[in-house]
TrEMBL record:
The reaction(s) this protein catalyses: N(6)-[(R)-S(8)-aminomethyldihydrolipoyl]-L-lysyl-[protein] + (6S)-5,6,7,8-tetrahydrofolate = N(6)-[(R)-dihydrolipoyl]-L-lysyl-[protein] + (6R)-5,10-methylene-5,6,7,8-tetrahydrofolate + NH4(+)
Entry's family note: Belongs to the GcvT family.
Functional summary from the UniProt entry: The glycine cleavage system catalyzes the degradation of glycine.
Pfam families: GCV_T, GCV_T_C
Gene: gcvT
Entry EC number(s): 2.1.2.10
Record keyword Transferase present: yes
Domain (GCVT N-terminal) ranges: 13-273
Domain of life: Bacteria
Protein's name according to its UniProt entry: Aminomethyltransferase
Assembly information from the UniProt record: The glycine cleavage system is composed of four proteins: P, T, L and H.
Length: 383
């Protein structure tokens, strides 16, 4: 994140953030709220009640037409034609060499209509790649980012908050909506695409709202959520929440030097995709990814649990205790407000990737003890 937000684009909710006293920061070319009050308080509100996030920096790219599904099967590593209407899929768009250009969530709204959600810093890259890759297919790519605001309500009280301002006829749909699904609904008088998705490890909803109605929906959610303990939450809490949940962040765990396999996300690569005749379905990066799957990894993404107090940060070296031999690098790290100890994600060489392996992180010249742990440090309670 950049601290100089003066040249970044304001969110459609910029005035609301200023009125709430948010500290603003540059992120992906946008001026976004870093925090409103306390990072830890916002983080804990999401774990215990709910948080309200502005995600309008994300990009929304529509792919539609009779061959939209086939075009996306070719353009992305996932099997998008297998996604049912009303459902969503986490996937990636890769280069020919198998490296990750961006990680995406794709929503299938109907048989010929998809929405691809891209990370803020990669919208132009994804838009350009999709436009090039759908050539030859009966499909059209349209960037809807300028006309779409995105807000999220995340936390165990999210369903109660959202349904309290949802049109009565749509409430059953919201309550029965499974994870990674979406539907049109009327919320605070606005017709939105409501999705049960998120980036915090909690239950919650993301609302794709017409820009001109964003402020009204934001205000209604903020007011409706107050009795439930909802607070506005910024990028800092969003980052610590996703880190606890073991969710990758583009530019940290994923980039153009990484394939999905190093990141432990090989499951999103559907090499078994076939055409109607049962032949392997070509897609961009397929050959490189098939070769990569069959070779031993040079590095592996792991979780780290700190056994002392000082946190690891992105870019710090992972070393062998005592010897100081560098065997990896931290991609993300922070104190965990929920767990009470430092956590991190890091790439290390495979021989040191087993859970329970004792390692150290060079924190400003001092070795701090860490243990290899599951990437997902926090799992939401089931009841």
């Amino acid at each position: 994140m950049s601290n100089d937000s003066t040249t970044d684009r304001p969110s459609p909710l910029h005035e609301q953030h200023v009125a709430l006293g948010a500290a603003l920061t540059g992120f992906g070319g946008w001026q976004m709220p870093l925090r409103y009050d306390s990072d830890i308080a916002e983080h804990r509100a999401v774990r215990e009640a709910a948080g309200l996030f502005d995600l309008s920096h994300m990009g929304e790219i529509e792919v539609s037409g009779p061959q939209a599904a086939a075009a996306l099967d070719y353009a992305l590593v996932g099997n998008l034609s297998a996604v049912k209407t009303g459902r969503a899929r986490y996937t990636m768009i890769c280069a020919e060499d198998g490296s990750v250009l961006d990680d995406l969530v794709v929503y299938r709204l109907d048989n010929e209509h998809f929405v691809v959600v891209a990370n803020a810093s990669n919208v132009e890259v994804v838009l350009t790649a999709l436009t090039e890759r759908v050539e030859g297919f009966d499909a059209v790519v349209v960037d809807r980012s300028e006309e779409t605001a995105l807000v999220a309500v995340q936390g165990p009280r999210a369903e109660e908050i959202v349904t309290s301002i949802t049109a009565a006829a749509d409430v059953p749909t919201v309550r029965e909506m499974p994870y990674y699904a979406s539907a049109r609904a009327t919320v605070a008088g606005a017709t939105v695409l409501l999705a049960r998705t998120g980036y915090t490890g909690e239950d919650g909803f993301e609302l794709f709202v017409p820009v001109e109605q964003a402020a009204e929906v934001w205000a209604a959610l903020l007011e409706a959520g107050q009795p439930f303990g909802l607070v506005p939450a910024g990028l800092s809490a969003r980052d610590s929440l996703r880190l606890e949940a073991g969710m990758p962040l583009y530019g940290h765990e994923l980039d153009t030097t990484t394939t999905p396999y190093e990141a432990g996300l090989g499951r999103v690569v559907k090499l078994e995709k076939t055409d109607d005749a049962g032949a392997p379905l070509p897609f961009v990066g397929r050959d490189a990814l098939e070769s990569r799957r069959q070779s031993a990894p040079a590095r592996v993404l792991v979780g780290l649990r700190g056994t002392a107090r000082r946190p690891a940060r992105a870019g710090y070296d992972v070393v062998l205790p005592g010897a100081g031999t560098v065997i990896g690098s931290v991609t993300s790290g922070a104190p965990s407000p929920t767990l009470g100890h430092p956590i991190a994600m890091a790439y290390v060489t495979p021989e040191f990737s087993a859970e329970g392996t004792e390692l150290a992180v060079d924190v400003r010249g001092r070795q701090e003890p860490f243990v290899v742990a599951p990437l997902r440090a926090y799992v939401r309670p089931t009841s």
